[in-house]
Amino acid sequence: MQGFTYIDLAILIVYLAAVLFAGLHFAKKEMKGKEYFKSDGTVPWWVTSVSIFATLLSPISFLSLAGNSYAGTWIMWFAQLGMLLAIPLTIKFFLPIYSKLDIDTAYHYLELRFNSKGLRVLGAVMFIIYQVGRMSIIMYLPCMVLSSLMGINVNILIIIMGIIAIIYSYTGGLKSVLWTDFIQGSVLLVGVTFGLIFLIAHLDGGIGAIFHEMSAGHKFLAVDQPIFNANILKDGVLLMIVGAGFNTMGSYVSSQDIVQRFTTTTDTKKLNKMMLTNGGLSIFIATVFYLIGTGLYVFYQVQGNQLPPAAQQDQIFASWIAFELPVGITGLLLAAIYAAAQSTLSTGLNSVASSWTLDIQARLSKKELSFEKQTKIGQYVSLLVGIFSIVVAMVLANGGVKSAYEWFNGFMGLVLGILIGTFILGAFTKVANTTGAVCAFIAASAVMVGIKYVIPVVAPEVTISIWSYSIISIVVSLVVGLPASIISRKVKGDTSVPAQYTTIYKN
């Protein structure tokens, strides 16, 4: 076991320098206003597609998926199949709306549909809270792993990661972010696939040993993990697929970091290609991670190879990379872990900057902001949010989260679940108005906060699956929002119809 060497460190440094150079290279043309937030229309659809893939595939997935498979079963893999629900629904119903409206941000849609600046601002605030939390854990997780392997203080690694992402997000806007995401997404795909091939080659019995453990060893699904649970609020494969599907749809439809990519073009064919390519890449790489996790279980637990240091659940993959791969290859694979964090982090910074500038600052400003002013505000916001996320990541690094993947999905289901309910209310109904949307938002928020934070305290014996969060939120939004809209319309004598292209119906 050689561990992390100076050669690996050199390769990691060269990689980080190359990413920084690429980001600055694509930032040569000065971007102003909407170009800074939406790019300049020159980025190919396939670059944007890989950017979506790299954004969604954070180190939360990179490390935790393999860790879940190693320590448990493939039950979490089924969450990836939620894309088979999320992508067709998004393509069918929401992408046509977004392309026809030519929206600036995800929450621009709320203003157009409900004629409410307040809802737009509220949606943006929810997203920013969610994204800051996400960026923090995205910095914390890989840096904790690398710190234990490299012997470098975790705070130093967090600061370096944050600074690099801040630099090219600040200077080049979305175009720089898209191209660096593409580079890092490609590194991810190649690196992880190579890791699986190398692992299989060093297993007694090869891939057959993995499949044997999945079936005979019940690593695919344990006997107590049902395909369908009659209690829809308890974990089951079907609930996981459907719940994760709506979680992912929440990202596609109501999360600015993804919707921002849709604003780069109004061509629905290109948008559809983005979605389908992203879905294919995501399911493929998730399957690779789970094969790696089960392969590592076979390698260490079944075939009795010596466990490396720092071999906790979420660190097992990185530990194997450091102690089993050849010198140099270790550096490349650990660079891939960093790539997963960098791509998601840079996207987060730019999306928060765009949402704050266009959804909040511009809406609350008494006079219209010039393109130059918008750009400056966006840059300052990305800088400040980046620094704040670095600080929060340092706090997390001194705390700890048992399973980052499960924690994050619960958090995502809580925040984006509330938002997606309002978006569905607007897109799928003609009668919904501002009053109904506000009531739906408040009701969904109250119910979800109660489920997440109150019930575990007052009734700890009651367990509600995180995979039901989005479903519950959508149902509450519709059950409350529709009657509230109908009643308010009758009281006000309101017979207005939604603005053109803001619903799935033809006006």
Task: Give your account of this protein's structure.
α3 crosses α8, α7 (about 115-150) runs antiparallel to α14 (about 330-365) and α14 crosses α15 (about 370-395). The protein has 18 helices and no strands. It has one domain (about 5-25, about 35-400): Up-down Bundle (Sodium/glucose cotransporter), CATH 1.20.1730. It has about 500 residues and is mainly alpha-helical. The mean pLDDT is about 85.
Summarize the structure.
The chain is mostly helical and 507 residues long. It has 18 helices and no strands.
- Secondary-structure-based class equals mainly alpha
Total domains, how many?
A: 1
Low-confidence stretches: none
Assign the CATH topology.
Sodium/glucose cotransporter
Largest sheet: none
Specify the number of helices.
18
Distance between the termini: 67 Å
Rounded mean pLDDT score: 84
How much of the residues is beta strand, in percent?
under 5%
Basic shape: globular
Tally of DSSP β-strands: 0
The level 1 CATH classification is Mainly Alpha
Helix share bin: over 70%
Task: Give the topology string: H per helix, E per strand.
Answer: HHHHHHHHHHHHHHHHHH
Radius of gyration: 23 Å
CATH homologous superfamily grouping: Sodium/glucose cotransporter
The CATH architecture assignment turns out to be: Up-down Bundle
